[in-house]
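REVIEWER CHECKLIST
Item 1: Sequence provided? yes
Item 2: Single chain? yes
Item 3: Sequence as submitted:
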Amino acid sequence: MLNTPYFSNMSHVLKRSISRCTWAASHFYSKSPPTRAYIEERLKAFCADHGLDTQGAEIAEITSTGHSGGTQPSEPFHIVFRAQTKDGKLITTVNPHTKKDTTSWHCYIAKDKEDLDARVLAYYNDTNASK
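Item 4: Structure as written out by the authors:
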């Protein structure tokens, strides 16, 4: 498990209100449906774990693929997304580095690209083993 307070533990089943994940750009991981599926599951768990469901979040739009750095050069590997309510309102958070309100949420999905690939493979194998 990643050593960060933001990484969600998916070892338990959670009731989630995020009804769908969307992608800001259709080419994000378009050649890897298992990667998309894994990221969407991580994101749904993150939203539930971080109270976005209690704030009425129904849609999570992924606006950036997995990367390290960004506003804070040493930030761990993550995706960026926006959480939206049914009526279209964006849910804000406070950027831990700038201390400013933002609609850009960070979801830590792996340690790095290689770790993401390994997690996707394990997720794919687990998902297909039960079929």
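Item 5: Key structural point noted by reviewer: The first strand starts at residue 20 and ends at 23.
Item 6: Recommendation: ____
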